[in-house]
Each structure stands twice: as C-alpha cells, then as structure tokens.
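Apologies for my clumsy wording, but can you show me some protein sequence, whichever is easiest, together with the matching structure tokens, please?
=====
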Amino acid sequence: MDIREQIEQVLEECVRPMLHSHGGEVRLVDVRDGNVLVELQGACAGCPSADLSTKGFIEDTLRAAIPELNAVELEQTVSDELLGFARRILYNGG
C-alpha cells in the first residue's frame, strides 16, 4: 500500500466519520515529501474556526497512524485576511 492509499484509508476510517457528523468532508489534494495537503468541504469549507480546529484533528489523526508524515496543510478556502481575523479572535479573545 503506497502512502496515498494509507492516507485515504485513515481519512475514510477515522476522519471522515467525525466530519460527516458535522456536515463536512475532506479531500486529499496532494502528498509531497511527507507533507499532506487537504481541502475541507461541506459545512467545514470556508469556516475559519473549523479550518483551524479541524486541521489539528486531521493532522493528529494522520500522524498517529502514519508517523513518517511531517505535516498536514489545508488548501486555502478563505482569504488570508479573514483567516488572520479569526485567529486573532480565537487566540486573543477579540
């Protein structure tokens, strides 16, 4: 089983069920040099707080199952300005 197949298996068995329960979905975009690029879809797409919290969940889940992975990045679904604003609210309380 190659790395993409391993990632897809973990996404299918461990990540997608949780995302589906919230109306979301994840798509594997690319794998390069141990770095994974995913796109959030459905209810999770474009929501800055969902992007931040879901990225951590996906990365933790994938890295626990496939230790050779370096990082998981989200394909940008919102503008950098909006994402920065959301981060300030989440981490600084406003």
Q: What stands out?
A: The two ends are 46 Å apart (CA to CA). The chain has three helices and three strands. The chain has a mean pLDDT of 87. The first strand starts at residue 24 and ends at 32.
